[in-house]
Sequence to fold (240 residues):
Amino acid sequence: MEADLAINLEERVNGNGRRGALVNEPAPEPEALGSEPETVGRLAAIVESMLLASGAPVPLARLVEALDGPERREVTAALRALSESYEREGRGVRLVYVAGGYQLRSAPEHGHWVRRLLGGRPPRLSRPMLETLAIIAYRQPCTRPEIEAIRGVDADAVLNTLLERRLIRILGRKDAPGRPLLYATTKDFLEVFGLPDLQALPPLAEVGEGADALAARADAATDAGDGDPASSAGDDGSGG
Fold:
């Protein structure tokens, strides 16, 4: 599980219920965390609220900064406690490490009911889109002529669709005749396919295998989420 791996790595490297206020009810003053270590349970509850409110993946450094008190190792311990409690208690959410941050997602085994609530799966990527995305993911940055040379067909329409879905972005222009545009993946790409980073891409033997691998990751990520992040996310950051 990516979250456990990320927490383990962090510990190895750096390991040295009230309901929300009503509309007219004044919000309570936040309790200062201070510099003294907080109990793991309370800190885990605070982190849980932060991740729930964010929706998008939150990097560990951002959590530490927002908490403004607990040390990095304490926040890591709280994340581990949160993840283990979800697993131990059979909760309906899971803590995952994706796109360089931590995110709460619905349990994969509950995907059937989540899809029924939301009206089915999000639109699936076509085979040409998966193949084009695989080329960009493994060879980025790359140009449209380079993509077309590999696939043997025009890629303009597919690239425009991938740009609209925020799975790829224009990185710049290549210093070559015609100055063609360079394409790269986004953080939304990592989130949609449930990848912590680009190093987590499976080994590639050929484009077809890359497309199949991405399709499998997309299915798994959809089961573990509650919708298509590419349809609503607004991040234009690089996945690399």
